[in-house]
Amino acid sequence: MVSVLFVCLGNICRSPTAEGVFRDLVEREGLGDEIRIDSAGTHAYHVGSPPDARAQSEAKRRGIDISGLRGRQARTEDFKLFDYVLAMDRSNHQNLLSICPPDAQDRLAMFLDFAPDLGRREVPDPYYDGGFEPVYDMIVQAAHGLLSDIRQKHL
Ligand code: 4NP
Fold first, then answer.
1. pTM for the model
2. Domain count, the chain
3. Is the Cβ atom of 39 under 6 angstroms away from ligand 1?
4. Any catalytic annotation for residue 14?
5. Which of 38, 52, 89, 125 is labelled catalytic?
6. Residue 129: what pLDDT?
7. Whether 8 is catalytic
């Protein structure tokens, strides 16, 4: 079993979208029993909340349902439980590094590093300025790159 945790700030926009997109891809590839997927936020503002309505509607428009997901906060133990801990932006990465055990730092990466063709390392925060549509496209592209990496290294 390979495990992946997507992490953003609030766990209501980018990381639940990544969780839903990646789960959909993994299930369509028949790998649902091989890869465990979750998401979390570095902050606790939205613990227990469903994804932002705008993230839900963009996902629905693309054919996936993320309405059942609920926010939770990332914790040090996640570095024991997940093989991949993937930050959406540099600030998330810094915050995760501060709770990451020294011997688990190789589990932490930037999600968009799995989509080098995008030419950017950060998924922009859509919470204040919208932009859910381009964010969704970036996530789809990185999800494919991530699955290729998992296939090469683990399956
Ligand atoms: P996310 O977006 O990190 O992609 O879930 C945000 C959600 C909430 C806030 C900021 C970003 N907030 O400040 O409450």
1. 0.99
2. 1
3. no
4. yes
5. 125
6. 87
7. yes
